[in-house]
Design brief:
Helix content: 40-55%
Radius of gyration: 17 Å
Bound molecules: phosphoenolpyruvate
Distance between the termini: 13 Å
Number of domains: 1
Order of helices and strands: EHEHEHEHHEHHHEHHEHEH
Number of helices: 12
Structural class: alpha/beta
Strand content: 5-15%
CATH class: Alpha Beta
CATH superfamily: Aldolase class I
CATH topology: TIM Barrel
Length: 252
């Protein structure tokens, strides 16, 4: 039985003060209503420490939005898995389409990061997804297959089983356009098939595969009802406590 994972990716939004205020409001709105769903917040690095403190005892977990694969060194501007663990992160988002698009992140880099995250006890949320051009060219499955296989090269079945994969069609991120429930299910089922090829059916059945792309309280229940959609990676709608709480409640 896979527990749905609802993660709020705040991107480059929210100061420390805004983070603490958000968490106070969210805790008030949820008050037990998050049962049956795992809830994760992914604030910017600068707010992780304050978020960890504010989340203490809430049952809500913390994630970073990215990390580097080395433990330490002369890598100006980067953050290591050790640092994320120390601050209290359980998860780390890897390979978000914005990292791929604006910062040149490759499948090879995602793979190195995934291995480093697992080595240090962080659970990677590995993002994959096709662009509009790729969808229209009919190569969605080819693109997803390259990304999934590239990200997971060299992981053993037990490591793969513990992962989270987020299917995020790039054309649906921040655009208000959502994949239909059936389209999202189709790609998520395809991803589970790929995972079975890579790591065996038993491991594949354990992997939580999220959908991401303009998820809102109004469309969450339909998406979450699909058998291979095990939660959501939420951008815009995770920035307001009431809309994020609405998605969590719709996902139970
Ligand atoms: C995201 O950034 O991962 C995302 C899905 O954004 P949005 O919900 O705003 O489309």
């Amino acid at each position: 039985m896979r527990i749905p994972l609802i993660a709020g990716n705040w991107k480059m939004y929210k100061t420390v003060a805004e983070t603490v205020q958000f968490i106070d409001e969210l805790k008030g709105l949820l008050a037990g209503a998050g049962d049956g769903v795992e809830v994760v917040l992914c604030p910017p690095y600068t707010a992780l420490s304050a978020a960890a403190e504010a989340l203490r005892g809430s049952g809500i977990f913390l994630s970073a939005q990215n990390m580097y694969w080395e433990e330490q060194g002369a890598f100006t501007g980067e953050i290591s898995p050790l640092m994320l663990r120390e601050i209290g992160c359980k998860y780390v988002i890897l390979g978000h389409s914005e990292r791929r698009q604006y910062f040149g992140e490759t499948d090879e880099a995602v793979n190195k990061k995934a291995k480093a995250a697992l080595k240090h006890g962080l659970i990677p949320i590995v993002c994959v997804g096709e662009t509009l051009e790729e969808r229209e060219a009919g190569i969605t499955e080819k693109v997803i297959s390259t990304q999934v296989k590239g990200a997971l090269t060299g992981l053993d079945p037990a490591q793969t089983a513990g992962l989270v994969v987020a299917y995020e069609p790039v054309w649906a991120i921040g655009t208000g356009r959502t994949a239909s429930d059936d389209d999202a299910q189709k790609v998520n089922a395809f991803i589970r098939g790929l995972l079975a090829e890579i790591a065996g059916r038993e491991a594949a059945e354990k992997v939580r595969i999220q959908y991401g792309g303009s998820v809102k309280p109004e469309n969450a229940a339909g998406l979450m009802a699909k058998p291979d959609i095990d939660g959501a990676l939420v951008g815009g709608a995770s920035l307001k406590p009431d809309s994020f709480a609405g998605i969590i409640k719709a996902s139970r």
